[in-house]
Write a structure and sequence with these properties.
With 574 residues, the protein is α+β, with helices and mostly antiparallel strands. The protein has 16 helices and 32 strands. The chain has 3 domains: 200 residues, BirA Bifunctional Protein, domain 2 (2-Layer Sandwich), CATH 3.30.930; 130 residues, YbaK/aminoacyl-tRNA synthetase-associated domain (YbaK protein); 99 residues, Anticodon-binding domain (Rossmann fold, 3-Layer(aba) Sandwich), CATH 3.40.50. Strands 4, 8, 9, 10, 11, 12, 13, 22 and 25 form a 9-stranded mixed sheet that branches. Strands 1-29-28-30-31-32 form a 6-stranded mixed sheet, sandwiched between helices. The structure holds one RNA strand of 76 nucleotides.
RNA sequence: CGGGGCGUGGCGCAGCUGGAAGCGCGCCUGCUUUGGGAGCAGGAGGUCGCUGGUUCAAAUCCAGUCGCCCCGACCA
């Protein structure tokens, strides 16, 4: 082991915040010289960032190996016909980068590797005796995202740990899945992150069960719903709430004039009823036509939930013309008396459980009082498509739910046989019968995880690496590199620490002491050792801990400094 | 893809009612300095994103285009 000299490594720092960045982690990764942009959502990792990234990878590898994972490495470039077989050549859409090779064969850049790993499994797994098997890799993915954002939070080219498990039965997958879940918890915890594990929508991946690991963060792109009392936690696209059945007697339906009231707010105010006593119409356009969603006036439709209930993958809001075309009056649309067979009605639980609501009359300037489902109109679907709000009752225990933003760090899925069936990946079971492999898949965005670590571990002066992820544990600042005694002392000290197993960076740049102190804090090395004239004349060096500024002066000797470093880092909270 | 913003030395920005491209930081050289982002002196570095137009004259006005950022849509 040796040490790294700052002057001989590309470790640039910036004094000022970059104009392009908003997120703390994005600003700090640029200022501390971890990353540099090449194009939108495409970054170079500079040496310091790369070291930190490799620390994250090391933790991920250890935990994957601990649950029996075997690392392999699959290609970035895949033949498109493999993707055509699972239907995802179309499903992935423009996110999937496609191109032709010189022979005119269509190729794609891998956005994920279910197809390739299943192809491997199809060829290599023949017997139940080879199962279960967990394969994983840490590898570059490319997804041509419509919008990258937030530095490493959402990028187009990124490093992902993706793991795939193969089982002889759903029961075996069910038994294995919790091990991955626990491994993920350990990974995030070792990275110093209090990640939430939430129930999630399997979405495009398909499959029967799924959890996301989310770091609560105001800049996060995901929204999670949690219950402090019972521990319920779900992605907003999956979360539900509890509906109390209203008990009041059904009243006769009546038409009332509501001139000029085209919004729920207008109607509720005009008729002096709360918005929760109204039903509104929201129109969507799906593959099989128009969908008329009837939902309580004070609630919003969640499109992911709507897609699941209706089975429509491609949903969009319908235009006014499309609404009018089926005989509905925009602003006064009503499920009552709707006749056009092209429209399918979906009743949200919020309306199913309510009584005597105000709804449109499908007539300009009129609404209906005391509308009740199913007395007054039929529906193709009844389901939960409402967006959960902060304070809504928990579906399990009824306590108030919290809604917060977060960064998705990892996602695990029970895939089932979607890919093995599509690609014909079968094995012979204990009875000698060919069966499709049962699969799970498990992803972690490594770069995003690194960004999340910085989101959680920084202060106004810079990054504060957790010890396990610090690119170096110790930085030795030689205050005046023109003075031979300081250079010598710094070098021998650094060598002594390095041979003791620490990763050491020596700041031997010709900079003022102030800059070195500031940069040490900016790049976030857990421990700073100062070799300067003041202490050196007494045969001493000064140590300063990043996380709390704790300082200590010790004798300039390898054993003494090693001892002090060990103690200061061992007692650190990071 | 819709909405908004921004493209001027490496970084952060000013200049924009048209008329000699500037400031701070950084960088280079020299001297002084050296324990919390030093001082002085000298210096290098810019087709003002690109293309076209208007004009005697364009960083500045107009049109188009490309790029980047933010919000939304989208999204393992």
């Amino acid at each position: 082991m040796t040490y790294v000299r700052w002057s001989q490594c590309l470790l640039p720092t910036w004094k000022e915040d970059p104009g392009e960045a908003d997120l703390p982690s994005h600003k700090l990764m640029l200022r501390a010289g971890l990353i540099r942009p090449l194009a939108a959502g495409i970054y170079t990792y500079l040496p310091l960032g790369w070291r930190a990234l490799r620390k994250v990878e090391a933790i991920v590898r250890e935990e994957m190996e601990a649950i029996g994972g075997c690392e392999l490495h699959m290609p970035v470039v895949h033949p498109a016909d493999l993707w055509a077989k699972t239907g995802r050549l179309e499903d992935f859409g423009p996110q999937l980068v496609r191109f032709l090779d010189r022979a005119g064969r269509e190729m794609v850049l891998g956005p994920t590797h279910e197809e390739v790993v299943t192809d491997i499994a199809r060829k290599e797994i023949q017997s139940w005796r080879q199962l279960p098997l967990m394969l994983y890799q840490i590898q570059t993915k490319f997804r041509d995202e419509p919008r990258s954002r937030g530095g490493l939070v959402r990028v187009r080219e990124f490093t992902m740990k993706d793991g795939y498990s193969f089982h002889e039965s759903f029961a075996d997958l069910d038994a294995y899945y919790p091990k991955v879940y626990e491994a993920y918890r350990r990974i995030f915890s070792r990275c110093g992150l209090a990640a939430l594990a939430v129930e999630a929508d399997p979405g495009l991946m398909g499959g029967s069960g799924s959890h996301e690991f989310i770091l609560p963060n105001p800049f996060g792109e995901d929204t999670v719903v949690t219950c402090a009392s019972c521990g319920y936690a779900a992605n907003l696209e999956w979360a539900s709430t509890r509906w109390e059945e209203e008990r009041e007697p059904l009243l006769p339906r009546e038409e009332v004039a509501t001139p000029g009231c085209t919004t729920i707010r207008d109607v509720a105010r005009f008729l002096a009823v709360p918005e929760s006593k109204t039903a509104k119409a929201v129109f969507y356009k799906g593959e099989q036509g128009l969908i008329f969603v009837v939902i309580r006036g004070d609630l919003e439709v969640n499109e992911a939930k709507l897609a699941r209930v209706t089975g429509c993958a491609d949903l969009g809001r319908a235009s006014e013309e499309e609404i009018a075309e089926v005989g509905a009056v925009p602003g006064y649309a009503s499920p009552v008396g709707l006749k056009d067979p092209r429209v399918k009605v979906l009743v949200d639980r919020s309306v199913e459980t309510k009584r005597n609501l105000v709804a449109g009359a499908n007539k300009e300037g009129f609404h209906l009082r005391n509308v009740n489902f199913p007395r007054d109109f039929p529906a193709q679907w009844v389901g939960d498509v409402a967006t959960v709000r902060d304070g809504d009752p928990c579906p399990r225990c009824g306590s108030a739910l919290q809604v917060q933003r977060g960064i998705e760090l990892g996602h695990i899925f029970k895939l089932g046989t979607k890919y093995s069936q599509a690609l014909g990946a079968t094995f012979l079971d204990r009875e000698g019968q060919a069966q499709p492999l049962v699969m799970g898949c498990y992803g972690i965005g490594i770069g995003r995880l690194l960004a999340a670590v910085i989101e959680a571990h920084h202060d106004e002066q810079g990054i504060r690496w957790p010890l396990a992820l610090a690119p170096f544990q110790v930085v030795v600042a030689v205050l005046d590199p023109k003075r031979e005694d300081q250079v010598q002392a710094g070098a021998s000290l650094a060598q002594g620490l390095a041979s003791g197993g620490w990763e050491v960076l020596v700041d031997d740049r010709e900079r003022s002491p102030g800059e070195k102190f500031h940069d040490a804090k900016l790049v976030g090395i857990p421990l700073l050792v100062v070799v300067g004239p003041r202490s050196l004349q007494r045969g001493q060096v000064d140590l300063e801990r990043r996380e709390d500024g704790l300082r200590r002066t010790v004798e300039l000797s390898t054993p003494a400094v090693r001892e002090a470093v060990k103690e200061l880092l061992a007692t650190a909270g990071c």
